[in-house]
Amino acid sequence: MHRFLASLMLAAQANALKKVLVTGAGGRTGKLVFEQLKADGNYKPVGLARSSKAQKALTAVGATSDEVIVADVADESALATAMAGCDAVVLCTSAVPAIKPLSLMKTMATKFLPFVKTSRPAFKFPKNGTPEEVDWLGAKKQIDAAKKAGVKQFVFVSSMGGTNPDNFLNSIGRKKDGSGGDILLWKRKAERYLVESGVPYTIIHPGGLVDEDGSKRELVVGVNDEIMKDPAFASGGTRSVARADVARVCKAALGSASATGVALDLVSKKAGDGTPTKDASTVFTAPGKYTYESAAADPPSIFS
Predict the structure, then answer these.
(1) pTM for the full model?
(2) 159 belongs to the catalytic site
(3) Which terminus has fewer CB within 10 Å in the chain: N or C?
(4) Mind listing the pLDDT tens digit for each residue in 170-181?
(5) From the candidates 94, 158, 159, 256, which is the catalytic residue?
(6) Which residues are within 8 A (CB) of 153 and not within 5 positions of it... i.e. 6 or more apart?
């Protein structure tokens, strides 16, 4: 019933969706969302960028001074100001790990020194930039601010793999005490929080993000990470999707009743296979039902 009423509300207000806040707008995916919205006269996007560098990236794609807000998503006051008067929010924030220089040197050494044990590069998250801080607490603050501001729709760009605690991505940045990593688990906790918040939502779980032009591949949707178990998508880059296509799907979700209350996984077929998806809204036709089971326990916290 809740989803039905929310769908009716969105359908009635679809033509009124104008001001859209894109958080993480200085990132590669967020910037594309901002660009696509700005190119459409029906929207007035506002990009929330964390740094002056991110601000310059938005300015380079045509953002004016009144279309960029430099602030951290941890700043509740700044979030409240940014969301004032917004009809929708597209969350593109994510913790971003950096390679540990020494581990990179060791990895490179294995190519020239056969007696050095082969190892993968190690990663760490920057100060105040761990998954718990960004993908859980930062996302939670955005959801809370959106609810207080009366935002009509919240589009959450997350990631595939959240159903598997043993996914390799969860090990990135993990410390000896077990804290500091678990990016997919913290994202999933934020997703559950959004689902339970009462804010009309659309949750998108992209596969591996690649920097390619959009509308060149056939998009494939699924739920509950079932695509990852499908042999047809086991290799050959078929668990990937262009950032530009993710941005197109975000834009298509805005004001769409069929996208309301929907969570889906998104990948694409290999280039040349299938028929390129020109109308991004078709991914919401019959994505299936996503299951948000209760977590047995939260991952280890950096604050413990």
Answers:
(1) 0.89
(2) yes
(3) N
(4) 999 999 999 999
(5) 159
(6) 10, 17, 87, 88, 89, 199, 200, 201, 202, 253, 254, 255, 260
